[in-house]
Amino acid sequence: MSISAVAALLLLSEAPPVPTNAAPEIPAETTAQPYAGDVLPPKVVPTIGTAPSPAPVTPEPSSGEQPTPAPGSPNEIVVTARGDAPPGDPLQAVNIESYRAVQAIDQALVGPIAMGYQSIVPEPVRDGVGNALRNLTEPVNFLNYLLQFKIGKAAETLGRFAINSTFGVGGLFDVAKKKPFNLPYRRNGFANTLGFYGVEPGPFFYLPLFGATTLRDMAGNGLDMLVLPTAIGKPFNRTAYAAPTTVIRALNDRIERDAEIERLQQISLDPYVETRTLYLEMRQREIDALKGRIPDVIAAPPVEPAVRQADTLPDQETPIVEAPADIETPPAGDMPPL
């Protein structure tokens, strides 16, 4: 036997016996790999005490985008829009821009000038000038009451004009509204006459220098401004008269509306819409009062909400509730303090 054969026999005698039922060992490099078309279930390895799988990460929104929280969450943001233009305000977008521009000019220029005018000029002087300018509108009021066939109010307006022009020193003092005359000022004009005869307001406008108005009111106010210059002439048709009187009227009006303007800017959710609504409602009430649908706004002012109900019903007596007979009422001096 050769040396190589002897070495082979020694190696075979030292190797452990192989069981007959054992599966033959397959080398790792020869393990069969699945085909590309095979689908294997995911391998699940149960573990104890491990954290749950994290939720899928939602990509952050790009710059300029805001996340939309789930409905009902505490961070929900509700954005309300003004919506389409209503039928009475077809130029709503233009009017809103005009309103913003007018308010910006008012805050920067008109408001400070009006407040300065109020602080510099004494109130009696401002009231006197305002009364005189208002007295000059009485002929227009008188003419329109005649056109509306309201002879009684026309006579009262003519009486106011005569009393204030004489006893009131050219209208500087409103003597007619006091006793014994008791003639209140009632504003009237061609815009009211047009509405009295059924002319609709037309589209709403918010214009510089004019503010809130409608097509009907613009036409009527234009006619009002032509009465004195056309009927009388000088000095009402001169720029030297029209310019300063227009400025004074505007300043007095701005002072009177200061509280309302501040309330709209600080409290109102939509100052433009509220301004439009208040103006149209006020104008409709004036037309309805002329037609007799509601009481005269001068003769029957609205009841203040702060007035108690007992004060608004003076004819009703407050019922007196008597204590039952079996309950002893202590004397006034023995009542416990409140």
Descriptive overview:
The protein is mainly α. It is 46% helix and 2% strand. It is built from eleven helices and two strands. It has a two-stranded antiparallel ribbon with strand order 1-2. Helix 2 (92-120) crosses helix 8 (239-256), helix 3 (123-135) crosses helix 8 and helix 6 (190-196) crosses helix 7. Mean pLDDT is 76; it is low at 26-51, 57-80 and 299-338.
Task: Report a brief summary of the structure.
Belongs to the MlaA family. The protein has 338 residues and is an all-alpha fold. Helices cover 46% and strands 2% of the residues.
Layout of SSEs?
Blueprint: H1 3-14, H2 92-120, H3 123-135, H4 138-147, H5 151-166, H6 190-196, E1 204-207, E2 211-214, H7 215-231, H8 239-256, H9 258-266, H10 271-290, H11 309-312
Antiparallel strand pairs: 1-2
Mean pLDDT: 76
The tally of strands reads 2
Total number of helical segments?
11
Can you tell me the residue ranges where pLDDT is under 50 for at least 5 consecutive residues? 26-51, 57-80, 299-338
User: In percent terms, what proportion of residues is strand?
Assistant: under 5%
> What does the largest sheet look like?
2 strands, antiparallel
Range of helix content: 40-55%
Q: Give the overall form.
A: globular
Given helix and strand content, the structural type is mainly alpha
- Sequence of strands across the biggest β-sheet: 1-2
Please report the distance between the alpha carbons of the first and last residues. Answer: 133 Å
